[in-house]
Amino acid sequence: MAVSAQHVKAQLRHFARQFEQFVRAWNQRVERWLSQHLSLTKNPKK
Fold first, then answer.
1. Assigned domain for 36 exists
2. DSSP character at residue 44
3. Nearest-angstrom CA–CA distance, 26 and 31
4. H or E stretch including 18?
5. pTM exceeds 0.90
6. Which domain, by its residues, includes 29?
């Protein structure tokens, strides 16, 4: 069960890319929710 360093690096790079995409999508969702929530709480009269 020998695993080459290049294989490990490729796997890590692939995982990092997927994780980065996931975090970016999650951040967009959170920012959208926060902007809606904050606009509602900031301007209750509107």
1. yes
2. S
3. 9
4. helix 5-42
5. no
6. 19-46
What is the identity of the amino acid at 26?
A: W
- Domain assignment of residue 44, yes or no: yes
- Residues contacting 24, CB < 8 A, separation 6+: none
User: How many structural domains comprise the chain?
Assistant: 1
Q: For residue 33, which amino acid is it?
A: W
Q: Please give the Cα distance from 19 to 7 (Å, whole number).
A: 18
Task: Establish how many alpha carbons lie within 13 A of residue 16's alpha carbon, considering only the half-sphere containing its beta carbon.
Answer: 6
Here the tokens at position 4 are 């080459």
- In a domain, residue 25? The reply is yes
Name the residue among 46, 1, 17 with its Cα closest to residue 9: 17
Kindly report, residue by residue over 1-46, the tens digit of the pLDDT. 688 999 999 999 999 999 999 999 999 999 999 999 888 777 656 5
